[in-house]
Amino acid sequence: MQFAECDEDIAANAETGGSALIDGVGEAVSMLIVRDALAGCRRPAEFQRRLGMPAEMIAAKLDALVETRILERNDSCNGIDPEYVLTDKGRELEPLLQALSNWGRAHMPIRNSILE
Length: 116
Hints:
Elements: H1 8-25, H2 28-38, H3 44-51, H4 55-67, E1 71-74, E2 83-86, H5 88-91, H6 94-107
Antiparallel strand pairs: 1-2
């Protein structure tokens, strides 16, 4: 069997975009935070309650998502309870998360997608 050669331009573009995505939000916790932000979560305690993870881990992931401009931090008037909202860039991840969720429902029936 002979395999066609890989189109290097297509592979390079896919690798660059895919690597950037994985570096920015590719880990599961970050994607779950984006999912929950799309569902309306705004405050660290809300993310922590939904995900059941330590506050320190949630804070670190929120900071990383702010750094990559997926989320924007808005300090409240009391300065204690910040809100995190999706940027336009972050909202553009919704179709990707929906596709992953759909794939999970179709192909992982025992434990559906982690993105549900």
